[in-house]
Amino acid sequence: MNEETEKILFDDDKRAEYEFRDQDISIFKTPKGLNVDTVKTISRLKEEPEFMLDFRLKSLEEFFKHHQPTFGPNLDFINFQDFTYFTRVVDKTNDSWDKVPQTIKNTFTKLGIPEAEQKFLAGVTTQYESEAVYSNMLKEVDEKGVIFLDTDTGLRLYPEIFKKYFGKLVPPSDNKYAALNSAVWSGGSFIYVPKGVKLDKPLQSYFRINNKRSGQFERTLIIVDDDAELNYVEGCTAPMYSEESLHAAIVEIYVGKRAKMRYTTIQNWSGSILNLVTQRAIVDDDGLMEWVDGNIGSKLCMKYPCCVLKGKRSHGSTISVAVAGAGQFQDTGAKMIHIGEESTSSIISKSISRNGGTSNFRGSISIAKTALNSKSHEECDTLILDDKSFSDTVPHNVVDNSSSYLEHEASVSKINEDQLFYLMSRGLSKQEATQIIVMGFLEPFSKELPMEYAVELNQLIKLDMSGSIG
Known about the structure:
disordered C terminus, alpha/beta, 13-stranded mixed β-sheet
């Protein structure tokens, strides 16, 4: 491991270099507060069809009915009337970086997005505050019939698809933050991959929050049709402020028969972001859904990617890592819901607590009566680096038939003193030896990451991941 990697992983001052902020260049903001006028203003500015305004208003009613979650970190301190729910920085989404305002272009250049687009990606959408500012896709991908747009544009061009899929997998009634997103959503990615189309390169979206006491509520809808394949990468950052901002996104994914979908998240929000996300996929016969979930930043994170394994022989997997430093609470995990016969799933979670941080694993596996001969494996391991950090493992597993098999294993440990002594006896400092042990602990996660595409992880961790994707 090189010196730069060591500083990025373990030096909070080094991390601050990536939490730069821009001047406020917004051209419109809704007043602070959440009410009917806020929702109507967002819908009017976007010139949405009537059915979407109706959806938003009903979602707002649902939001005020729901209490905060009764599990995980206490969220009662959040004052929903103290946030700005919509910020516009450009008049339209551009398909050329030259048309993007210079301040915003400079930000994404610092983060490496244009360079990655040229080298590795089939298409990119970037969102700054509430809306996409740039979206483009390779011509050959477009010619295959793939749709890759920001969600606002997708709604305008394909309203019938939205009526069929939008809000069906994650309805507003699902939880308080699903209702919040449904009321004030803006931006996100809309992707449709036609039957039999397989993309050689990933599509990527990048989300940036710049202002304090603001909210970002993107909505992502992905449909991978029968026999199609897609690899999608998502990254996100924000500058550090003394006051929190709120990120409450929804991701809905439909995986067709024999289709394959991989969704990689590199979440590096600053320590002033509250990250409260609902992600769910439904998988048809012989389909495959993979979540690769990296949680490095945010003051507080609650995120549990979910697979609804509806089809026969459908498979879902989640491989995740959470790193909790000073002042951070990472409550992360995964959910697997088995419905189809012979469905299979696996959850592998790695978490690290350091400098007083808290990293909890929260997992749920449900194998229904209909899911005969199904199998699931759950594995969660935590490494605690000091005496002031914390970690809990909270599994909830239910099997409702006698022909299925579920196994769960968990471990919480500290740095192995024998390993530490061995490495130090070879001339390494204690810090160097510790970092090598940590990297070995994270290896099951890191080997799955598309390192050449995941820009945010390239910038932050710079791990050596040769042969990361097969």
